[in-house]
């Protein structure tokens, strides 16, 4: 992927999730990112990527950013933020225009992409990404960069990702209330892929599955580009709720049991190992029921199977299952549950590995795992992925900054 001029000063990313909000602050060192500040905390006020309580979400963002700023001693204003809700839609748009046999230049590329973005009907949707997947010059396909070539017609396949405009407005409002400006919005599975995938996987075909607290999102990469994204409305929090209901235990204890004893695939030893389950309404936790560990696995496995079956169905419906190849990379907090990798391989019938952030240094072990892939991917996007479209002119930059800037100013003035 072609890197553009690196941003000056600190780069900040905020992952606003259903169960946690985290902030990474980094400095660019060559082609590497050095993390200098980390802040994260439990998140409330969201469900399946949709904001339910704006004040609570704003507080989570503020606290996470404050913690990262105290670690670095630097104040940040501009942040890159993920979008995981709003029923994101992935679509391939074909665009073509005449270039009259002359050399293709930057202006042609810009007009071509502007035309492609114009073909996306906005309505109540917000355009998150327009990613060129391949170019065509006079019928010759598979061209990665046509600048400098001569031809009569120039075409491009653009992968567009749109989401609910109201979800974006609410997210922008929360970020602005935290005294921050949004530098860029990035689809969660796209960010996760940028953080976890190696170049060969992106080129040959791979599916990254980000298993979050409220949603499980997926992205297909091929020939170095993201060509498909989707979201399944099931996450780790649903597993926790299943345990709480199935065992009549408070949610906090259900989460603890899932983390300490949970698994997606059982073993013969599970019948012999017992777990004490505190009951709802009981003051003395020691008076809880005792159950075999196998009961817990029997609750977790069906929900995980359902999740991967939905992922498989979305891939098959997209028509890109073959393009994605036989490689799957699992990431996100819910992917760390024992047996999830093996179960995913069985249901998806693919080779599966666990992904964690790469190309980034300075991450403590606790914040360098799969649960922080999206936040790390936001930083990587800030450093390299603006190459997804030609560098905008000064007027285009002003127009784009004007959208977020005007919206942010209006929100601060009126709320």
Descriptive overview:
The chain has 415 residues and is of the alpha/beta class. The chain has eleven helices and 19 strands. The protein has helices at 54-72, 106-118, 165-177, 188-196, 199-204, 236-247, 251-261, 293-318, 340-348, 373-384, 394-414; strands at residues 11-16, 20-29, 32-42, 46-47, 50-51, 78-83, 89-98, 125-137, 140-143, 153-164, 181-187, 206-211, 216-222, 225-232, 274-277, 289-292, 327-331, 351-354, 360-361. The strands form five sheets. A six-stranded mixed β-sheet has the order 11-6-1-2-3-19, with helices on both faces. Helix 1 (54-72) packs across helix 3 (165-177), helix 4 packs across helix 10 (373-384) and helix 6 crosses helix 7. The longest helix has 26 residues, at 293-318.
Mind sketching the topology for me?
Elements: E1 11-16, E2 20-29, E3 32-42, E4 46-47, E5 50-51, H1 54-72, E6 78-83, E7 89-98, H2 106-118, E8 125-137, E9 140-143, E10 153-164, H3 165-177, E11 181-187, H4 188-196, H5 199-204, E12 206-211, E13 216-222, E14 225-232, H6 236-247, H7 251-261, E15 274-277, E16 289-292, H8 293-318, E17 327-331, H9 340-348, E18 351-354, E19 360-361, H10 373-384, H11 394-414
Helix pairs in contact: 1-3, 3-11, 4-10, 6-7, 6-8, 8-9
